[in-house]
Amino acid sequence: MALLLMESFDCIYFAAKFALPDAFPKFNLNNIQAIGTGRRGTVGLKQLSGNDNYSVINFGTDKTDLIFGFALFVSSGGTASNAIFKVYDSTPTLQFCIDLTTVGRFRVKDALTGNVLAESADGAFSKDIYQYVEIKFTCTGTDSIEIRVNEVAVLGPTGTLDLRQVGSGGAYYVRLSGANTHFATNMTYLDDLYVLDFSGSTFNDFIGDVKVDAFMPTDDGYYTDFTPDTGVDHWAVIDEKGDTALSHYIESATATDKDSFTITPTGNLPTIYAIKVHNVSRNPDTGVSEGTPFIRMGGVDYPLDPYERGDTSQANEQIVENRPDTDGVWSKTILETDFEFGFEFSEVVS
Amino acid sequence: MANLRIYQGHIQTLAEGVSKLRIYQGHIQLLWKDAPYWGCEFTAVSSIETELTVLSPVGRTLIIFAAFCPQIEIKESLEWFTDIIKPTDGIGSEQRISIRPIPRQSFTLSIPLTVAKEQSRFEAIMFGWQKLYWGLPVWTEKVSHSTTITAGAVSITVDTTNADFRDDSYAVIWKSLTEYEMVIIDTVADDSLTLKTAVEDTFTGDKFIMPCRICQITEAVKRNNEEVDFSIAQITFAVKDNVLLTGYVADQSYLGLPIITTGSVIGIQNKEYTSDSDSVLQDYDTGDFDYFSDSEFNLIGQNWTFYNDTRAKCWDFRLFLHSLKGRQGSCWIPTYRNDLVQVGTIGASDTDFSIENIQLANNMTFNSLRTHLAFIFPDGTIIPKAITAIIESDSEEELISINTALGLEVEVGDCIISFLDLSRQASDVVNIDWLEHNRNSVNQVFTAIVE
């Protein structure tokens, strides 16, 4: 799959910590970040400045070609040009970084205070307004990088650069940080993130200014085998977004039990590239349980990959690029009329 | 003697733990994109006070080009991209591949700037905004509107037929250089637009409703001084959100392709025909030269002028152009000359007839390029037929055989007999000269091709 990650940031809950996903790539927060204002009135991620405050994406392997897309807001008035995008190998050793100057110039550098390998013009990025930034780079030996803002190239594609400063290089971790020194007054917000590599026949190049929206369940679906910890509505105990997200749950002790839910998509949604099925779960007792997310369309269940849980809450996220019933593209209409997502307690592992 | 001695007996069970699955949170995330991608949620609409700007929260700035009114003559261009592989089959069949799925559309407007202050304002706007994105009202398809549109309205009653109003797109309400508003269309019906967001201002009296396209300025903006304080600016907008239109239905078809029955039929006396050997020059630098052609046939062209004088005709012609996809598609074009001068009556069941000898058999013979005829009658009726043989009867006459009989008796003078050429456009570019809204003319060269 070429589409590796998509994140709306609408469901991050800081008090309960970010539930680390059970598969690579993993999006995690180093030090507490904060909830910021997203670009469309929803939640965005407030990036704090400083090298120890960052969001990190752990790919679990050295990636050699990646494209990042995210909506970025940087308030004006900063006094320093901090690196907003840092690429590390598995050591982790910094391979290269991108900073954003106070006059809106992107600079690709070989170290935080190192040489400038490539740079945009001043004003490539306008501050005080959300703009969609896409960064595409390869580090395969003939390294190059391109940065686009609102789908227009502002840096590169460059000729051959050296984006592998130490050893074999590669992108094992990518850290995203605030652009300014004084984060209390100079804000950096992030929203609508996607990450892809160049493999596969789809999602292997820039996809432009996209949005990621989270849709919580709004009703119970075909299956209601689990038991809610409170109330009678199953969907109502798993739809929390904020710090109370781990307060309520549905639970089953019987393998093959299923629960499914419907959503009410809002907004325009003319072109839907992919959906992500997300859950946070655990087995509160002894042993290991296997859960299987599934999509239900046309009265047929389409299982996704199973996962195992012990007594630790973890997130499971699976991206589904095409409709499982027809292998065609998603549409708002089909999500409204013939779509459920759900979870099966599929097996007692131990 | 066999014995069985049992000392101990019990059951052991290997019991499983109490495995459960507890789910705390579940939701769906969608990765999606707007069409067009910056237009999801406009929060402000344009007004002259804010100098044309519309801001979207996603960071795109879109300027509505409505504070300047263009002259009624507007030039539109539709440009496809076709790759033609020359024939190698000995009979002249070419392969045409349409590479660009949606035609590149552009509009060139002339903007009169009647006082120095207007010129300065125009220049200032270009200085600041020329490189950005524009919402261009399609002036050539403006629809007159007179009933009041009240602030808060979420639909507009307007005739949307034969114009490029689209679902999930934009329109402009335009009353004057200072009173206009861009609205976001949710759905289009024949008699109304349903909007995604309510109209912000009230518009009374006569005004226009126009489709609105997302554009960028792709050519240098020119401004010619006509007098000291009067100049005309010329500005070209290329449309970013054009679509391929479908649904063209020809008035008359032959072998599944449309026959052109409009346009230069009227102005045939000024029509230009060309015959190009499609050759290249080899100059030996000795004074001698050779002219080589790798084409099976000469490129036989005819310059065709279309004239569309109603909104419906303009739209139908647009659908026709989209159906051709530049040089890729083909259609039938009669020469509208009396190419073959009939000799004697053609019976209703005759499959051959005589014409005055014009040396077809000797010079053209039966070939794969010109193999069809159009019998064109004064009332406009066209009977197309395929030629199956050309034989010289004597020094005075030639005998033409056709695939099937005409089905009616045709005396000399009842009709003209034209060659009916299967043709494609000679160029991927179509220039539409709008004389005013809902009235345009197009001059286009067509080249005969082999089936």
General description of the model:
The complex is a heterodimer of chains A (350) and B (451). In chain A, 2% of the residues lie in helices and 46% in strands. Chain A contains one helix and 26 strands. Chain A has one helix spanning 332-337, and strands at residues 3-7, 26-30, 34-37, 43-46, 54-63, 65-74, 83-88, 94-100, 106-109, 116-119, 131-138, 144-149, 152-155, 171-176, 188-196, 211-215, 217-224, 227-228, 250-252, 257-263, 271-282, 289-297, 300-303, 307-309, 314-320, 340-348. In chain A, the strands form five sheets. In chain A, strands 1, 3, 4, 6, 11, 12, 13 and 15 form an eight-stranded antiparallel β-sheet that branches. In chain A, strand 12 (144-149) and strand 13 form a beta hairpin. Chain A is elongated and about 60 Å long. Chain B has 451 residues and is mostly beta strands. Chain B contains three helices and 31 strands. In chain B, the strands form four sheets. Chain B has a 24-stranded mixed β-sheet that branches. In chain B, strands 5-6 form a two-stranded antiparallel sheet. Chain B has a two-stranded antiparallel sheet with strand order 17-18. The longest helix of chain B is centred in the first third of the chain and has 14 residues, at 116-129. Mean pLDDT of chain B is 84; it is low at 10-17 and 35-60.
Protein topology:
The complex is a heterodimer of chains A (350) and B (451).
Chain A: E1 3-7, E2 26-30, E3 34-37, E4 43-46, E5 54-63, E6 65-74, E7 83-88, E8 94-100, E9 106-109, E10 116-119, E11 131-138, E12 144-149, E13 152-155, E14 171-176, E15 188-196, E16 211-215, E17 217-224, E18 227-228, E19 250-252, E20 257-263, E21 271-282, E22 289-297, E23 300-303, E24 307-309, E25 314-320, H1 332-337, E26 340-348
Antiparallel strand pairs in A: 1-15, 2-5, 3-4, 4-15, 5-14, 6-11, 6-15, 7-8, 7-14, 8-9, 9-10, 11-12, 12-13, 17-20, 18-19, 20-26, 21-25, 22-23, 22-24, 22-26
Chain B: E1 21-33, E2 53-55, E3 61-64, E4 74-79, E5 82-85, E6 95-98, E7 104-113, H1 116-129, E8 133-137, E9 143-145, E10 155-157, E11 169-176, E12 179-189, E13 192-195, E14 207-217, E15 222-227, E16 230-239, E17 253-254, E18 257-258, E19 273-276, E20 279-283, E21 289-293, E22 299-308, H2 311-324, E23 331-334, E24 342-343, E25 352-356, H3 360-363, E26 372-376, E27 382-392, E28 397-402, E29 416-425, E30 429-436, E31 439-448
